[in-house]
Design goal:
The protein is an alpha/beta fold. It contains 8 helices and 5 strands, in the order βαβααβααβααβα.
């Protein structure tokens, strides 16, 4: 029997490098779970609440060197706290399933990459204080994912503009993080068709739901 969750809902996060397809897969999972009768909140980070969406514009647009890593960390944490208070915690308390496209693991990777991991974790413990029930890491070849991300041609390409070296580093770091938090991480192979990736994800989530109900 799995340990009881601190809330009646289920908190699922998607992680992965830019262009890995996690946003599409988060949406498909939400559709699948709703079709099964679950109440699902689909959200994202940075963002997910009005105040956090304003911060999203600040951190994802502009020159790659617009902010220092320390400033980014504070901005992302502020956005996450507002998102938790206004969206995630109320939904989980109501017994709903929350699917979030990125969460604290992305901050550990992107803002922690410059030697700030200990500060990331300390601030997380102080201001956030929770981890997802299940994290789905969509693992994909960095070159292919970066090409896909750049093809979107949106204004939110500040991290993509760091180029392939950052994507390669982030992939390795995400895989290392999946081993560090192996109890909640499930690595999904993203170098497959969208349908096959979605099937792998839905099967993983179904198994988790069955285990948590037992």
């Amino acid at each position: 029997m799995s340990a009881p969750r601190p809330h009646p809902g289920l908190f699922i996060t998607f992680e992965g490098i830019d262009g890995s397809g996690k946003s599409t897969q988060a949406r498909l999972l939400a559709d699948t779970l709703r079709a099964q009768g679950h109440t699902v909140i689909l959200t994202r980070e940075p963002g997910g609440s009005p105040g956090a969406e304003e911060i999203r514009t600040l951190v994802l647009q502009g020159d790659p060197d617009r902010w220092s890593a320390e400033t980014e960390l504070l901005l992302f944490t502020a956005a996450r706290r507002d998102h938790l208070e206004r969206v995630i915690w109320p939904a989980l308390a109501a017994g709903q399933i929350v699917i979030c496209d990125r969460f604290a693991d992305s901050t550990r990777m992107y803002q922690g990459r410059t030697g700030l991991r200990s500060r990331v974790d300390a601030l997380h413990d102080l201001m956030i204080g929770m981890e997802p029930d299940l994290t789905l890491l969509v693992d994909m070849d960095p070159e292919a994912s970066l090409s896909r991300a750049k093809a979107r041609a949106t204004e939110e390409e500040r991290f993509e503009d760091f180029g392939l070296p950052l994507q390669c580093q982030m992939r390795e770091d995400f895989l290392a993080l999946s081993r560090e938090f192996s109890a909640r991480f499930s690595v999904i192979q993203g170098n497959q068709s969208i349908e096959k990736v979605a099937l792998d994800i839905s099967q993983t989530v179904l198994e988790h739901l069955e285990a948590s109900a037992s």
